[in-house]
Backbone:
């Protein structure tokens, strides 16, 4: 009987834990308008605060890249420092180059690259749909 | 009066002597030294925190759109709100200092040794609970510091082996810091953690009563003095002194509030509260794995310290290896704290 009571209580505790565990909807990807190619200078960085999060557009040669501004270390928003051509995280001073590769500091991996879709002069970045709602 | 006493005795059939017994305990005379009274200080501060915390809940709104404004309202508009919030904040800082000083005293006098190992473990749990209290507390303000501290602090949990990710989701109430996070942290701060600390303090006191107060090595004095009124009076003096210090501190340095939380931009030179400086400095100096792994090992080492010390004593008797290693870690932590405070 004792075992039954323990098992029953464990089952109930598991259900309680399930109640506390959040319902995470599946990630939906959307194309978000991020500006025009002509807005980004050659070798420059354009920082954008979009409803889905902060992204950086870079133009290297003729190619447009988009990087997530979320530091891969502990999630702060990195900043572009044009004087030294680096992204620097203000929290633990992780340094990244213009391609998002780690130059120094504690970040374990490069900045996340986001897919870019070009429609004529217009730049669209592929991002997770739900972020802004969560950050409300 | 005697009639009322008789009436009460019939309904609560406990002998007065039984209630008086815990207060009649005799304490060893070394407890008269102020440094040995530090154990009671966190309890006094906890009572101050509980009282001011309850008062703060009357005005605080735990929702992102309103949390910041409700704290600003308490700080700048509510009558004496600045005093209540200031005392709450100051007491939380003092509580960490008091617990640390008490732990240092226990460490230096080696009061954690057999048979008191479990009480040391409870003490470390109390210290970590106090830090969690402080962390969840300043997360509730929802200014820039609080938002980014929550983001960084919870992201650190994600790197705990095996259970990191589920634990992160459970704490945040989702993959990112979101409205659920604030509600959850509020719940932790005002319900879960008080219950945990209440149980831990209770168990800590029970163990002290079971084993009796530890005597410093080499102290052979046999004299004692009563817990009540002598020791209670000393603790009361400490409590009143703390209140005077707190109120004066708040009058001269009233609480303020930073700019509202902006999830889109981390401010430059953001730093946590001073008690997380050592961890903050350590995380800057090391890779993510070493930073978080090292922090976890440090915590495990703190929990297991009585057993580690006993092992060291077996390997090298009378060499005080435990004290040397412990002091080295303490000094390193202190160096990180000073470094981040003045240079970082």
Residues:
């Amino acid at each position: 009987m004792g075992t039954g009571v323990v098992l029953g209580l464990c089952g109930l505790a598991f259900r309680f834990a399930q109640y506390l565990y959040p319902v995470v909807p599946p990630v939906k990807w959307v194309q978000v308008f991020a500006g025009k190619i002509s807005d980004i200078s050659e070798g420059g960085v354009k920082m954008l605060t979009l409803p889905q999060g902060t992204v950086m557009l870079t133009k290297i040669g003729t190619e447009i890249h988009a990087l997530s501004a979320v530091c891969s270390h502990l999630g702060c928003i990195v900043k572009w420092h044009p004087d030294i051509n680096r992204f620097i995280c203000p929290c633990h001073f992780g340094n990244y180059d213009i391609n998002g590769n780690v130059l120094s500091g504690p970040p374990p991996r490069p900045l996340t690259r986001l897919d870019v879709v070009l429609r004529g002069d217009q730049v669209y970045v592929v991002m997770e749909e739900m972020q802004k709602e969560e950050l409300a | 009066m005697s009639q009322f006493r008789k009436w009460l005795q019939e309904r609560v059939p406990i002998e007065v002597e039984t209630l008086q017994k815990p207060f009649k305990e005799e304490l060893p005379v070394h407890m008269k030294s102020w440094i040995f009274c530090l154990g009671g200080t966190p309890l006094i501060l906890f009572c101050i925190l509980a009282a001011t915390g309850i008062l703060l809940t009357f005005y605080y709104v735990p929702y992102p759109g309103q949390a910041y404004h409700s704290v600003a309202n308490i700080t700048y508009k509510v009558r004496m709100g600045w005093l209540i919030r200031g005392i709450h904040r100051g007491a939380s800082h003092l509580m960490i200092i008091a617990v640390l000083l008490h732990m240092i005293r226990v460490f230096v006098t080696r009061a954690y040794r057999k048979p008191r190992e479990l009480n040391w473990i409870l003490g470390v749990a109390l210290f970590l609970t106090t830090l969690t209290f402080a962390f969840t507390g300043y997360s509730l303000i929802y200014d820039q510091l609080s938002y980014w501290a929550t983001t960084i602090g919870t992201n650190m949990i994600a790197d705990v082996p095996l259970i990191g990710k589920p634990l992160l989701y459970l704490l945040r109430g989702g993959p990112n810091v979101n409205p659920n996070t604030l509600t959850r942290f509020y719940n932790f701060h005002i319900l879960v953690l008080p219950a945990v600390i209440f149980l831990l303090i209770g168990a800590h006191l029970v163990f002290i009563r079971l084993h009796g107060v530890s005597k410093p090595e080499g102290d052979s004095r046999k004299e004692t003095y009563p817990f009540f009124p002598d020791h209670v009076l000393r603790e009361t003096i400490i409590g009143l002194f703390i209140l005077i210090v707190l109120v004066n501190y708040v009058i001269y340095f009233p609480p303020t509030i930073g700019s509202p939380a902006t999830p889109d931009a981390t401010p430059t030179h953001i730093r946590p509260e001073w008690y997380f400086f050592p961890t903050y400095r350590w995380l800057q100096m090391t890779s993510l794995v070493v930073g978080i792994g090292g922090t976890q090992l440090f915590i495990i080492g703190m929990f297991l310290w009585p057993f580690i010390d006993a092992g060291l004593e077996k390997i090298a008797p009378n060499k005080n290896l435990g004290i040397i290693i412990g002091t080295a870690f303490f000094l390193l932590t202190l160096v990180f704290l000073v470094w981040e405070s003045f240079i970082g």
Chain B has a mean pLDDT of 91.
